[in-house]
Amino acid sequence: MRPRILIARAIFPEVIDKLAQHFDVTSNQDDVLWTPVQLMAQLQGMQGVFTTGSERIDATVLAACPTLKICANMAVGYNNFDLEAMSAAGVLGTNAPDVLTETTADFGFALLMATARRLTESEHFLRAGLWARWRYDMFTGADIHGATLGILGMGRIGQGIARRGAHGFGMKVIYHNRSRLDAATEAQCQASYVSKEELLRTADHLVLVLPYSASSHHAIGAAELAQMKPTATLVNIARGGIVDDAALAAALRNRTIAAAGLDVFEGEPRVHPDLLTVPNVVLTPHIASATVPTRLAMAHLAADNLIGYLLHHKPLTPLNPAVL
Ligand code: GLV
Predict the structure, then answer these.
(1) Is the Cβ atom of 210 under 6 angstroms away from ligand 1?
(2) How many other CB atoms sit within 10 Å of the CB of residue 267?
(3) Do domains 4-99+292-323 and 101-283 have the same CATH topology?
(4) Which of the residues 86, 168, 199, 281 has an alpha carbon 20 to 30 A from that of 14?
(5) Digits of tens for pLDDT over the chain (324 positions)?
(6) Using N-to-C axis directions, what is the helix angle for 13-20 and 292-312, rounded to 10°?
(7) Which atom of ligand 1 is nearest to the CA of 286?
(8) CATH number listed for the domain at residues 4-99+292-323
(9) Is any atom of ligand 1 closer than 6 Å to the C-beta of 251?
(10) Does residue 197 have an active-site annotation?
């Protein structure tokens, strides 16, 4: 009998076709957002599930779905997985690293530039018909070239942003990370390791690229924002919950920092109402990896993990390999 898998969200038809060559596939092309109870009902009798970052897999789901062997996330982040509970239940988790690194770094840089140069704020002004004449101080922002770029979380995407800043824009790059990079990687990124406090105090532009966990919850809150320069910008392409969005909205309103660019939000797709009322923030709907080739590559990697594990016991990017 062929293994049964569930594709929990709408996905590229070619990826469904590929999976259907090996599995009995139940898909969700109507993209219904299932409640946890509905997800558990859909998972009955399934050996594998193709998830995106929005489906929570925890002890309750696992207990209710004893046939499940693998959850393949089409995302590099996997804070929707309770990995400890998955390991305890003998369920493998996989994610989709590497294939999105450069695309996401491109976007981080785009959001940084849009934020520093007030792109959306000035476009709203133009669209509203308010552009009557040139003025010397109209939408003056901050320079990118030659500025100090701070990066919190120096994994593959952080390193991609560092390389863009250092090599493309002559920025001075500083970073803070759980562990310091080796000397060769630091040299490649032209990045210097500093304490979190120094990072906050000295960065002209601070980009967040760290994974979400209990220990990174509100890593940037009121106290951290207060340490930043009043001219500084903050970009979050990591995860909602790393920034205290209410505290950030207050800092933006009071101009204790100059501007922010946010692709991720606490409790998204809801956005803190105060962020919607401040002008000095660029807001995008969690699209950092959203190019067609990259989203395709992520979907194929998730599919290949299902095929690799359920057919050959060889997943490509396992998160809890002890299960193997
Ligand atoms: C996107 O946020 C991802 O984790 O891939």
Answers:
(1) no
(2) 10
(3) yes
(4) 86
(5) 899 999 999 999 999 999 999 999 999 999 999 999 999 999 999 999 999 999 999 999 999 999 999 999 999 999 999 999 999 999 999 999 999 999 999 999 999 999 999 999 999 999 999 999 999 999 999 999 999 999 999 999 999 999 999 999 999 999 999 999 999 999 999 999 999 999 999 999 999 999 999 999 999 999 999 999 999 999 999 999 999 999 999 999 999 999 999 999 999 999 999 999 999 999 999 999 999 999 999 999 999 999 999 999 999 999 999 999
(6) 10
(7) 2
(8) 3.40.50.720
(9) no
(10) no
Query: 74 CB under 6 A from ligand 1?
Result: no
Alpha helices in the chain (DSSP H): 13-20, 36-42, 59-64, 83-88, 101-116, 119-127, 156-163, 169, 183-189, 196-202, 222-227, 245-253, 273-277, 292-312
CA of 280 relative to ligand 1 center, distance in Å: 25
Q: Is 239 a catalytic residue?
A: yes
The domains of the chain are located at 4-99+292-323, 101-283
Q: Please tell me the distance between residue 296's alpha carbon and the centre of ligand 1 in angstroms.
A: 14
Is 55 an active-site residue? Answer: no
The domain defined by 101-283 folds into Rossmann fold (3.40.50)
For residues 257 and 233, the answer to whether their CB atoms sit within 8 Å is: yes
Three-class secondary structure of residue 57 per DSSP: strand
- Ligand 1: does its nearest atom lie under 6 Å from the Cβ of 77? yes
5 and 46 Cβ atoms separated by less than 8 Å: yes
pTM comes to 0.97
Which residue has the least CA distance to atom 5 on ligand 1?
75
DSSP bridge partners of 75: none
Beta bridge partners of 49: 6, 71
β-pair partners for 4: 24
164, 239, 272, 295: which is the annotated catalytic residue?
Answer: 239
Residue 238 Cβ inside 6 Å of ligand 1? The answer reads no
Angle between helices 119-127 and 101-116 (to 10 degrees): 60
